[in-house]
Amino acid sequence: MLKTFLTTFLTTLILVSCVVSPTGRKQFMFMPDDQMDEMGAQAFANVKQQTPVETDTGLNEYVRCITTAIVQVSNSPTKQWEVAVFRDDSANAFALPGGKVGVHTGMFNVAGNQDQLATVIGHEIAHVLSKHGNERVSQEYAVQQGLALLQALANPQSQMGQTVMGLLGVGAEFGILLPYGRVQESEADSVGLNLMARAGFNPKDSVVLWQNMSRQAKGEEPPEFMSTHPSHTTRINDLNNAMNSAMPLYQQARTSGRNPRCNL
């Protein structure tokens, strides 16, 4: 009987959960949005408990200013995103369902101005808007774990619950990220580039940001075929190729009065 139930359950998921991403890519998802938001809120709360939060008002306002400008043009159902800066030397950032953005202090050493940091924040928000967390959770558990996912949601501190939160974009031990796949990363680059342009941030600085990231890596980046992420070179080339569509969005934004002034 259990086998019959699970078969029916999974068949129903397949029938009702095929959706399309912002770039037109077919996705398999079955988690309700409110459940994903709850998981994102829990993960964010856990990070704040385990990682020192930067209290510097200027840094927090800087990140909030950029985030707000991007959210305003994103059609996000969450209008007011929660922002936190974490004291961590790694050049990292993340966004979670439910409207949560975290930026490590190490990112300020790589993103030299508002446009470069908008590249990062736009990319992370794009992951959320594209529901990549939902997609990963669904793919990971729909067949392999079945109804065990429901138990994980009920106990986010369990090993499986922490793994699920890791699939959202922040790892169980906070600072260990479970990487998105290349398709999702490239999609977030594309969607994020358009978001920052529509918000009035110069998309050309996205290339500078990834050049900075490449220099910081100091040749330690693994070959692309060994990595789940596109190489820095591939990313830079793809972004350059996307400028013909991104720059008109930027120029239109500036003409319409979107001229963010987010400064430290």
Please render the helix and strand layout as text.
Elements: H1 2-16, E1 18-20, E2 26-28, H2 33-50, H3 57-71, E3 82-86, E4 93-96, E5 100-104, H4 114-129, H5 132-141, H6 148-154, H7 159-168, H8 182-198, H9 204-217, H10 232-241, H11 243-255
Parallel strand pairs: 3-5
Antiparallel strand pairs: 1-2, 4-5
Helix pairs in contact: 2-7, 3-4, 4-8, 4-9, 6-7, 8-11, 9-10
Give a description of the structure.
The structure is a single chain. The chain is mainly α and 264 residues long. It has one domain (31-255). Helix content is 55%, strand content 8%. It is built from 11 helices and 5 strands; from the N terminus they run H-E-E-H-H-E-E-E-H-H-H-H-H-H-H-H. The strands form 2 sheets. Strands 3-5-4 form a 3-stranded mixed β-sheet. The protein starts with a helix and ends in a 9-residue tail after the last helix.
